[in-house]
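As a warm-up, study this chain.
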Amino acid sequence: MALEPTSRGRFNLEKATILMLDGNGMGMDILVQIVTGLGAKSLHRCQTVEDAKDAVKRNSIDLIIADALSPAGEGYEFVSWLRTDGGEPNAFAPVVVTAAHTPVSMV
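Now compare it with the structure written out below.
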C-alpha cells in the first residue's frame, strides 16, 4: 500500500542498522545521502562482498542495500549467501538490490 501524496506519514530509519554494499565510491555516496536523509545513523559501508559478510556476522542488520553487480558481479551471490548462511536474524533482513541493468538470467 503506497502513501497518499497528502499523507503526513514519513519514513524514519533513525533506529535502523543498515548495511550498504557498493564498490563504486560515487554509488556509495548516493546511498549514504538517501538513507541519512531518511534519518539513518547506524551505517555499515561495505565495498566488497567479504566486508559485507563480516559485517553480517558481527552485527544485527535491519536493512541491506546492495548493488547487484558490485564488486565484480557478486551482489547476487551475496544475497544468496545471506539467505542460506547469513544466520538469524540477518538471513531474514529485507534486501534492496540496485542495478543499472539486470540480466533476465539473474532475476
